[in-house]
Design brief:
With about 150 residues, the chain is of the alpha/beta class. The protein has 6 helices and 4 strands; from the N terminus they run αβαβαβααβα. The chain has a single domain, classed as Rossmann fold, CATH 3.40.50. Strands 2-1-3-4 form a 4-stranded parallel sheet, with helices on both faces. Helix 2 links the parallel strand 1 and strand 2. The termini are far apart.
Length: about 150
């Protein structure tokens, strides 16, 4: 049991934005596992289907909590935007401040898939802001009618 704890804890993190990309997620995990196996690492996979602009992703929060508890030495991702669409450098800084090495396997990503996913993320952002704006206007309209 003690020998097990002394081995480096490696997390392979994979993400796609939509359920339609589930096959891409499986392939992403396979490529990460091939890399980890070539290194001879024991690893845990954290994967999720969620927008890269969503800051409250279960998988990402699980990863960050494991890092805070000192359970992680390396995080392996395929591309920076798998970790986060925006704020990648902040997450990298957070990991490094806990002594975690972030490894990015910058292979050639399918540009069409990237553009489609970015468009879906941008639609999610616009939808979120529109909901906030219209929610605020609805509240103001109600206040103006009562006064």
């Amino acid at each position: 049991m003690i020998e097990e704890k002394s081995k480096p804890k490696v997390i392979l993190y994979a993400r796609v934005s939509t359920k339609k990309q589930e096959e891409y997620l499986k392939n992403q995990i396979r490529r990460l596992e091939e890399y980890a196996n070539l290194q001879g690492w024991q690893y845990e996979v954290i994967s999720e289907i969620a927008s890269g602009v969503n800051e409250n992703r279960r998988g990402l929060l699980k990863l960050l909590n494991k890092i805070k508890r000192g359970e992680v030495q390396k995080v392996v991702i395929e591309y920076p935007d798998r970790l986060a669409r925006f704020g990648f450098e902040y997450l990298k800084f957070f990991m490094e401040s806990f002594g975690v090495e972030l490894i990015v396997l910058n292979g050639k990503e399918n540009e069409q898939d990237v553009n489609k996913e970015l468009a879906e993320d941008l639609i999610a952002i616009v939808t979120s802001f529109a909901a906030r704006i219209y929610g605020q206007r609805g509240g103001k309209r109600h206040d103006n009618n009562t006064g």
